[in-house]
Specification:
Order of helices and strands: EEHEHEHEHEEHHHE
Bound molecules: zinc ion
Strand content: 15-25%
Number of strands: 8
Radius of gyration: 17 Å
Helix content: 25-40%
Strand order of the largest sheet: 1-7-8-6-5-2-3-4
Distance between the termini: 20 Å
Structural class: alpha/beta
């Protein structure tokens, strides 16, 4: 693994649900915003189907607020929700159009998203259908956004996307040293209080995130790291 180059100023991180970025990526975001970079969050859904026993209308409102607080902890104030239906996100042209529209407006150089692998690891559980749809659509929308003849109604093309980085994959190529920002990443996940309470089991964000980042750090040569697979777009 190589360190992710940090000679850029503008990133957009796109995931399916409130909390997806907080399961690791937020520690890297804290490092980048600490360097003065601008990072925006885009959520395909409001996570309204994410808490058992709680009405989706109420859950959606709660989780939007939790996501905004989580983002603020790591220096992110731009948080957008695309309002696709939680649990029912489809890979397809409507999602690609929505994402291309966002990329053309925000003009990122770097795009971050989540794993679209079928499973977590080789014999782990099946990755959520929403994650698979969003991760793959993000990569395709990077190309869509740069092509003036694709979705011409979505504004002038964005030609500045250099790389997309996909988190939590089985075959990482790059890492971010988050040793100095682990605490911020953990505090960011802790903001998802209603969600964590709704899990109905003991869950310690500190232990969970340190275990993963510590293991990744062993391969990266630092105490804590977050790993990504890079897809060059330039
Ligand atoms: Zn999710």
């Amino acid at each position: 693994m190589q360190p992710i180059p940090e000679d850029w100023t503008r990133a957009v991180a796109v995931v399916a649900h409130p909390d997806d970025l907080e399961y690791g990526v937020a520690s890297a975001v804290a490092r980048w915003t600490g360097q003065g970079k601008r990072v925006a969050y885009v959520l395909a859904t409001r996570g309204e189907a994410g808490i058992a026993g709680m009405d989706p209308g109420r859950t959606g409102l709660l989780r939007v607020e939790e996501e905004r607080r989580s983002a603020a902890v790591v220096g992110v104030s731009e948080v957008e929700f695309l309002s696709h239906e939680d649990g029912l996100v489809e890979y397809g042209l409507p999602l690609r159009r929505d994402l291309a529209t966002v990329f053309r407006r925000l003009q990122p150089e770097v795009v971050i998203t989540q794993s679209f692998d079928l499973t977590w690891g080789e014999d782990g559980p099946v990755n959520h259908a929403d994650h698979r749809a969003v991760g793959l659509a993000v990569l395709d929308a990077c190309r869509d956004a740069a092509n003036e003849w694709v979705f011409p109604e979505a504004g002038p093309p964005s030609t500045g996307i250099r790389d997309a980085y996909v988190a939590a994959v089985a075959n990482p190529t790059h890492f971010v040293d988050v040793t100095a920002t682990m605490d911020a990443g953990i505090a960011s996940l802790r903001e998802h209080r209603a969600y964590i309470d709704g899990l109905g089991r003991e869950f310690d964000p500190d232990e969970f995130l340190r275990n993963i980042a510590g293991y990744t750090g062993l391969g990266a040569g630092c105490e804590y790291a977050v790993a990504f697979h890079r897809y060059p777009m330039g």
